[in-house]
Amino acid sequence: MSIAPPPLDFTAEPLIRAAFTGALGRFTLDVSLCVPARGVTALFGPSGCGKTSVLRCIAGLNRLPGSCIVGGETWQDEVRFRPAHRRPVGYVFQEASLFPHLSVRRNLTYGAPRDPAQHGIAFDDVVPLLGLGHLLDRAPQNLSGGERQRVAVGRALLSQPRLLLMDEPLSALDRATKDEILPFLERLHAALDLPMLYVSHDMAEVERLADHLVLMAEGRITASGPLAELQSDPRLPLAAAREASVSLDATITRHDHGLTELAVRGGRFLVPGTVGPVGARRRLSVVAGDVSLALERPSPSTILNVLEGRILSAAPLREAEMTVVLGLGTSGEGDRLLARVTRRSWDLLSLAEGRTVHVQVKGVALAHPAPV
Amino acid sequence: METPLGDLWSPIRLTLELASLTTFLLLVVGTPLAWWLARTHAWWKEGVATLVAMPLVLPPTVLGFYLLIALGPSGAGTVTGPLLGLRTLAFTFEGLVIGSVFYSLPFVVQPIRNAFEAMGERPLEVAATLRASPFKAFWTVAVPLARPGFLTGAVLGFAHTVGEFGVVLMIGGNIPGETKVLSVAIYDFVESAQWREAHILAAGMVVFAFSVILAMTLIQSRAAKAGA
């Protein structure tokens, strides 16, 4: 059994390249991973598929045969194995795992280098970013679950990692607490230039945070690529899910009549309200079931968003429906969307791959809420 | 025949010296042993743990008998004795210390091992991901978290050494100021029908035992509260 590292990439972009094989409970872990060392990469898959094991191997907490190279630095190969405490990672566990014998402040500074000159991520920045100011002198026992997890994130950040590893940091929390923490994680994403590997089995979290997606099942990687590309790939189970949707990164272009206009590649969307200043980046999410298609420009209606697009591909879904992949813009070169249409409509309108269509979008969700 | 009360002080002082030194050595020896027992995956670790626990069930005289042979002029005493300027370790204070360490080892190792096991891998993994070396993680995370175990172990080790009798008699004999500790002194007083002296020492031991057990219970209930 040979463990070949992923093929070398000669572009200048820093990469996280890791390959591990080994026994893992009922099945064998056999992964080979190559993702950009920037932005948020989500490892997504059902519980027990080996996501956490991959993360632990990258952190050096487990040792399986394989290799691990991060940003050009070899952490593991056939002969070398750098122990966990010599790898510049920040690790956030599922349970906050704060040190019960230390105050919040001393938990935060436990891993911080003695020399403040090495603090690229400063204490005075992290504390307000995660809203920890009023908690500093408390004991971990007296914090809520959400507060503890925020302290754990801050503690990992202050150890000055070059890679942040998050192992389902929200899964032990209830819905309300999750919604309380997600904005903090989104701010982190926006404020820090720190690559992050984020393990999750919750697609809603992934849609809000991830730039890049790695799909896993039963110890193997089934697909890897930019988030929207995988969401709109009809061969993958994501596109067939009942709530299939596609995320688009948009820039605010103007405000009008109480609406905000956001540009994506190949089109523009309008959403109600003022969601941010002109030039700000926001993530939109469009559910496949909210997208309908028309051959001629629809007569004026109350639907806000009608865009030009081209059908790139289509695949039947169950007995009555089709999943249609659209490219925005008349030639279809822009961002992708998924549409869910009935087969009846597909035949009635003589829709086919390559046709230009008018894309009506009934609802657009803002994944990144307005900044706090 | 009345013994002046001042003479009672000698066995008490000797016992406290023996128990303090023994407790110190027990922590030095027992901590790495407990750490190893709590964390190793070696298949023979329970064999080692059983050896450590043997004094719990062995008659003290058996332990004392073997120690006497080991420490005496024909045993290891011939090697180690001269280093301390002695012909033999048997019937010396140093011999008593060695015997007590063996005798009380399980009382120290067991609570510390339990405390190390109870904290699990996680705090140490967290420390490692925060760039703490195993050495730093041990001193700044494992030891503070295992504090109740250390307290329990130290108190039990001290108290158990104070109360030992069989081992002392076998390897220490009954030399005033050298090996005549409290429990032996009480035995002597009873033998020679000095009831007053025996009463004083015995009552003191009762109070001591009561305080020790009460202290232990309080330590454990406080630790349980802090952990909740």
Describe the structure.
The complex is a heterodimer of chains A (372) and B (228). By secondary structure, chain A is α+β, with helices and mostly antiparallel strands. Chain A folds into two domains: 15-239, 3-Layer(aba) Sandwich (Rossmann fold); 245-366, OB fold (Dihydrolipoamide Acetyltransferase, E2P) (Beta Barrel), CATH 2.40.50.100. Helix content of chain A is 20%, strand content 35%. Chain A is built from nine helices and 20 strands. In chain A, helix 4 (145-158) packs parallel to helix 5 (175-191). The longest helix of chain A is centred in the middle third of the chain and has 17 residues, at 175-191. With 228 residues, chain B is an all-alpha fold. In chain B, 75% of the residues lie in helices and 0% in strands.
CATH topology of the largest domain in chain A: Rossmann fold
CATH class of the largest domain in chain A: Alpha Beta
> Which structural class is indicated by helix and strand composition of chain B?
mainly alpha
Architecture of chain B, according to CATH? Orthogonal Bundle
Shape of chain B: globular
**What strand order characterises the main sheet of chain A?**
6-7-8-3-9-10
What's the CATH H-level homologous superfamily of the largest domain in chain A? P-loop containing nucleotide triphosphate hydrolases
Largest sheet geometry of chain B: none
Please give the domain count of chain A: 2
Order of helices and strands of chain B: HHHHHHHHHHH
Beta-strand content bin of chain A: 35-45%
Write the layout of secondary structure elements.
The complex is a heterodimer of chains A (372) and B (228).
Chain A: E1 15-24, E2 27-36, E3 40-44, H1 51-59, E4 66-70, E5 73-76, E6 89-92, H2 104-109, H3 123-129, H4 145-158, E7 163-167, H5 175-191, E8 196-200, H6 203-209, E9 212-217, E10 220-226, H7 227-231, H8 237-240, E11 245-256, E12 259-264, E13 267-272, E14 281-287, E15 291-294, E16 305-317, E17 321-328, E18 336-342, H9 343-348, E19 356-361, E20 365-366
Parallel strand pairs in A: 3-8, 3-9, 6-7, 7-8
Antiparallel strand pairs in A: 1-2, 1-4, 4-5, 9-10, 11-12, 11-14, 12-13, 14-20, 15-19, 16-17, 16-19, 17-18
Helix pairs in contact in A: 4-5
Chain B: H1 9-39, H2 45-53, H3 60-71, H4 77-83, H5 93-119, H6 122-129, H7 134-145, H8 147-162, H9 166-171, H10 182-191, H11 195-227
Helix pairs in contact in B: 1-5, 1-8, 5-8, 6-7, 8-11, 10-11
